[in-house]
Amino acid sequence: MSGVARFVAVVVLAVSGISACGSEPPPPPTTPAAAPVCPDGSRCAGAVVAPCPAGHYCAGGQPPVTCSAGTYCPEGSAAPAACPAGHFCGAGAKEPSPCVARYFCPEKSERPTLCPAGSLCSKAQLSAPEECPRGSFCPGGSSAAQECVEGNYCPAGASAPVPCAPGTYCPVGAAEALPCPAGNFCPDGLKPRDCPCCPERSAQALDCPKKKR
């Protein structure tokens, strides 16, 4: 083959994609397949996808994160949920726990709060304490009001009975001290005692003035 003929043959082979040595050119580089996206609320290990475990939340393909106190996470959570009023949620809670009587739980409670003195927590799942009613008193942690005892009075919100002052009296369940009526005296806040010549609010007996002859 002449030199011109050999040159023409090389050109033809180049144009047709076949090298002069008779082998095909290497294939173009391929782009690697994108890694699968792990959906929120799931945990992924390779191609295995499972729900995020209860007490945790999973987002952005990251490992499970324990729910903080004041929130809860059921299975498959993508974000923690706020603990509802009337319930409490410790760290890692799977579901809210109801408050019991003697305690109250506002929203996002981490633990139950003992009913304060002067208040009443008579039922479960309270979000706020109730005021102790008039004529009763409520020590701390009360689930029932106690009737005010004789010789004392109990205004609304009382944490303990208040003694009646001399010159007044207080029957059982009194919300306020009552003035000792005229014709009686009241030395100790209990029942009025006869005293014909005593004015109203007398704390001690008075002798009646002697009649002039």
Explain this structure.
With 213 residues, the protein is mainly beta. It has a domain at 40-99. Helices cover 6% and strands 21% of the residues. The chain has one helix and 20 strands. The chain has one helix at 3-15, and strands at 42-45, 48-51, 56-57, 65-66, 71-72, 81-82, 87-88, 97-98, 103-104, 113-114, 119-120, 130-131, 136-137, 146-147, 152-153, 162-163, 168-169, 178-179, 184-185, 193-194. The protein has a two-stranded antiparallel ribbon. Strands 3-4 form a two-stranded antiparallel ribbon. Strand 7 (87-88) and strand 8 (97-98) form a beta hairpin. The longest helix is centred in the first third of the chain and has 13 residues, at 3-15. It is rod-shaped. The relative contact order is 0.07.
Could you tell me the mean pLDDT? 88
Radius of gyration: 44 Å
What share of the residues does DSSP label as strand, in percent? 15-25%
Helix-strand makeup class: mainly beta
Give the neighbour order of strands across the main sheet. 1-2
Q: Could you give the order of the helices and strands?
A: HEEEEEEEEEEEEEEEEEEEE
**Biggest β-sheet strands, sense, barrel:** 2 strands, antiparallel
Distance between the termini: 175 Å
Low-confidence stretches: 1-5, 7-21
Shape: rod-shaped
Q: What is the share of helical residues? A: under 10%
Number of strands: 20
Number of helices: 1
Main traits of this protein?
rod-shaped, 213 residues, disordered N terminus, single chain, mainly beta, 6% helix, two-stranded antiparallel sheet
